[in-house]
Amino acid sequence: METMKTIKNMHFEHMLWQNQLEFNRRELAIFERFLTQREEKILPHKRAELVGELHHFVRLVNNLLAEISSNEKLMCMEVRAEPVPKNELKEDFKYLREEMFYYDQNYRQFKKDFRSFAAALEIT
To answer: Source organism's superkingdom (predicted)?
Structure first.
């Protein structure tokens, strides 16, 4: 019974992460559109740097969503009483939680820097 409670909690956290990542993916597309629409105001090297960072975060989002999906499959196996090593499930979840923590910190900083750049660009 304790395993089911743990799996439900993990599933809940996965759902929150998936929503956040999907939102960030849409937000990144908006940022890229912003850069495209103001291309003439941005120095080419700065634009390339920002687009590179945007694409980096898109790759991270895709990788994290794939890892969440993989972890969800392991949890489904556990619910169906298929043999999944308990430590593997918990270790994967712990790793994913750390990855989300670092992703979130880095994305927040990127977003803050991007907003500052966009605000300065609008002033000029």
So the answer is: Bacteria
Q: Are 54 and 28 in contact (CB under 8 A)?
A: yes
**Distances 38 to 95, 120, 122 between C-alpha atoms, Å:** 39, 12, 9
Q: Whole domain around residue 69: which residue ranges?
A: 2-123
Of 102, 96, 79, the C-alpha closest to 13 is 96
| Residue 29, phi then psi, degrees to nearest 5 | -65, -40
Q: How many domains does the chain contain in total?
A: 1
Predicted confidence (pLDDT) per residue in 10-22, tens digit:
889 999 999 999 9
- When the pLDDT of each residue in the chain is averaged and rounded to a whole number, the result is 89
